[in-house]
Write a structure and sequence with these properties.
The structure is a single chain. With 682 residues, the protein is of the alpha/beta class. The chain is built from 27 helices and 9 strands. The strands form 2 sheets. The chain has a 7-stranded mixed β-sheet, with helices on both faces. A two-stranded parallel ribbon has the order 1-2. α17 links the parallel β4 and β5. The longest helix has 28 residues.
Length: 682
């Protein structure tokens, strides 16, 4: 089904109605049940909420600690703003969860549970088994839906974790019935089978009026949320295919020297009639004829020499979207990766495993699996865990992106007739949220004071400080550079400390006390990379212990602290990787006011517009000879303000492979003339 304007209008109407319904419901719940007034910012003392049962009292406590957590992380924000954020997050999470279950039904992953409300087959079976033990239909249905959330949370905790601060609330019976009516309306019912639907829900959750109001009040985004909301422009499917075909598709095409089925399935893959693939170590002949005066027809007859590109184990092929939104590029890249893995198995058998370049952590595919059938069954998991990477500054986008890829994996298993109970469990994804480390300085001091040796605590404090702009800059924060010196210094100080203790502890033979290992023990690590790998894992373990051993009264706040810190380390890990393909539809315009000083220091040639900064950053994150595909405003190619960027970045560090001038009206409501292009990193 094509998402034409009529279809999009239909979905936008649904999302607007659902957001209004849930926002009103949760605003009422916060005030009437939990003593949190989002209109005045008034917060009642928890001790006065004597009418709450234990479960709701715990929710009231978590909501207050979440508010305190957000206030600490958002200097200058007031309680009204933070409570509005909580309402917005709760509404978005519930809408996403219910939409996700409805999409799972449409794909045969879940027995009918949402599509017919209380009369759904799944609930009827559940109700029959439970009898009257769960009370009235509304209460029983709520319990059933919660059980579905818990089951889906095993694979997709980022969305379905009922105990996350962003998903604590649930609508009362009458509101839930209204929401089910909206979800099952005949106008939107056909859309639940479409992969793009969840992305459009993300797009339309913030209205055009809200974006316009933000722009009217300030030319530059005032904070990370405004930067995210003002730049939510859906990338059309044909643009996604054009850019992905000519980056990821092109790389595999060059690795296989044209012997790939992608030439048939990638309809936008650009090939020349007379391509000549060079062998390893071979260069193109010199002294080719001057092509300046040739006609287009004559140019097409000229030979085009394609540099040699070694075959790579598909598990090592990495794709990144540095401003991923709902992960449109990743969804289509998933299709291509499926074909790449399929062909890689056969190529490894015919050419031999030694023909593939692979990192040390992998052994050949044919040695990892006993049959191609078993290998292909594991491919959806491999793609999500190894290949597709994404960053966004909007936590809602990370929810949606994770859901989109998970649903795509389920679709692949369904097409292979793999039963739900035998599908490989996805252990991790590489979709991360760029957020500052948690802002509670007292908790940071308490945590780092328990880290031994002290140098590790000092390293953590430096990382927390350097991550302050993560929410404003996202993947543009060069955090791997910011902390490189800190890691090197920490390792040097650690080694010096070990040496000093050894020199001071000379004992007679057999008299030295037994060395007591500490939580952090990094003896004999060869370099900074190895030191960081060990230190980071130990810090993450310590964060988990810190949250788990917290007292009951501050458990929720320390859990939030530990979770946000872990997200920060995941962001750092991603920024330390290098990618074969970078695909993006990045924001454009000004940086946020808070990040402008950093931009001028870190992006000397491109700080005037965030477009240029994203392209520059994408190039830095690429492997040599990697491909970057982007759709942006075309102004960066001719405005004088981009002249230094073109001279020092575009024409110095890349070659322009392809460009499509698309004009107006391409990115939904974005009032820009767009261009889609492919750059090859030199």
């Amino acid at each position: 089904m094509a998402f034409d304007q009529t279809t999009r209008n239909r979905l936008q109407h649904f999302v607007t109605d659902a957001r209004t319904l849930l926002s009103n419901e949760f605003t009422r719940q916060l005030q009437n049940e939990y003593g949190l007034n989002s209109e005045t910012g008034e917060v009642s003392e928890l001790s006065k909420l004597t009418f709450l049962d234990d479960a709701r009292r715990e929710t009231a406590r978590v909501l207050r600690e979440t508010m305190a957590h957000y206030l600490a992380a958002t200097p200058g924000a007031d309680k009204i703003e933070i409570l509005s954020r909580i309402v917005r997050e709760q509404a978005f999470t519930i809408l996403n969860r219910m939409a996700a279950l409805r999409m799972a039904e449409a794909r045969g992953i879940l027995m009918e549970s949402i599509g017919n409300g209380y009369q759904s087959k799944g609930f009827q079976l559940y109700s029959y088994m439970a009898g009257s033990a769960l009370g009235e239909s509304g209460e029983s249905y709520r319990t059933y839906v919660f059980s579905l959330f818990d089951e889906f949370a095993l694979d997709l905790k980022v969305l379905f974790d009922r105990f996350s601060p962003q998903g604590r609330l649930f609508p009362k019976d009458s509101t839930l019935l209204e929401l089910l009516d909206l979800i099952n309306h005949q106008e939107v019912e056909p859309l639940w089978v479409e992969d793009e639907t969840i992305g459009w829900i993300y797009q339309y959750f913030n209205s055009k009026e809200e974006r316009k109001k933000m722009r009217d009040e300030s030319q530059a985004p005032r904070n990370s949320r405004e930067l995210a909301v003002r730049n939510q422009f859906f990338t059309p499917r044909y643009v996604v295919e054009f850019l992905t075909d000519n980056t990821l598709g092109r790389i595999w095409y060059e690795m296989t020297q044209g012997k790939t089925s992608l030439t048939e399935s990638c309809r936008y893959l650009v090939r020349r009639p007379n391509e000549i693939f060079l062998k390893e170590g071979e260069n193109a002949p010199e002294g080719q004829s001057d092509t300046e005066d040739l006609s287009q027809e004559e140019l097409l007859k000229e030979p085009v020499y394609v540099p040699f590109r070694a075959l790579k184990d598909p598990r090592d092929l990495k794709m990144l979207d540095p401003a991923c939104g709902s992960m449109h590029f990743g969804l289509y890249a998933f299709d291509l990766f499926e074909k790449i893995y399929d062909e890689a198995w056969d190529l490894e058998i015919s050419l031999g495993p030694e023909e593939f370049e692979r990192s040390q952590k992998f052994i050949p595919l044919n040695e990892s699996y006993d049959s191609k059938a078993n290998f292909l069954q594991d491919v959806p998991r491999l793609i999500i865990e190894n290949n597709i990477h994404g960053v966004d500054i909007d936590p809602r986008a990370v929810q949606i992106a994770g859901l989109s890829l998970w649903l795509r994996a389920q679709k692949a298993w369904q097409e292979m007739d793999v039963n739900a109970d035998t599908r490989p469990q996805i252990q991790k994804s590489n979709i991360v949220c760029a957020e500052p480390m948690p802002g509670q300085k007292d908790l940071l001091k308490e945590f780092t004071s328990g880290l031994k040796p002290r140098v590790i605590g000092q390293l953590v404090e430096i990382i927390f400080d350097k991550m302050q702009l993560a929410g404003e800059a996202g993947s543009l924060l060069k955090i791997e550079e910011e902390i490189r010196e800190a890691i090197h210094t920490a390792r040097a100080e650690y080694n010096e400390d070990i040496l000093r203790k050894k020199e001071q502890g000379e004992y007679l033979p057999g008299m030295a006390p037994e060395r007591q290992p500490t939580l952090f023990d990094f003896a004999d690590l060869p370099d900074d990379k190895a030191f960081w790998g060990q230190a980071e894992q130990k810090i993450l373990n310590a964060l988990r212990e810190y949250a788990e051993h917290a007292e009951a009264e501050d458990f929720a706040q320390k859990r939030l602290f530990a979770q946000d810190a872990a997200k920060g380390f995941a962001f750092i890990d991603l920024c330390r990787k290098r990618f074969d393909v970078v695909l993006m539809n990045p924001p454009f315009g000004e940086w946020t006011n808070k990040a402008k000083k950093y931009a001028k220091k870190s992006f000397v040639f491109s700080y005037n517009d965030i477009i240029g900064s994203f392209i520059e950053r994408g190039i830095e994150l690429e492997n040599v000879s990697g491909y970057l595909g982007a759709i942006t405003a075309r102004t960066c190619f001719y405005l004088k303000s981009f002249e230094r960027w073109r001279s020092n970045i575009l024409f110095t560090k890349t070659e322009i492979n392809l460009m499509a001038d698309l004009g107006h009206g391409v990115m939904d409501n974005a009032m820009v003339e767009a261009s889609a292009y492919i750059l090859r990193v030199c």
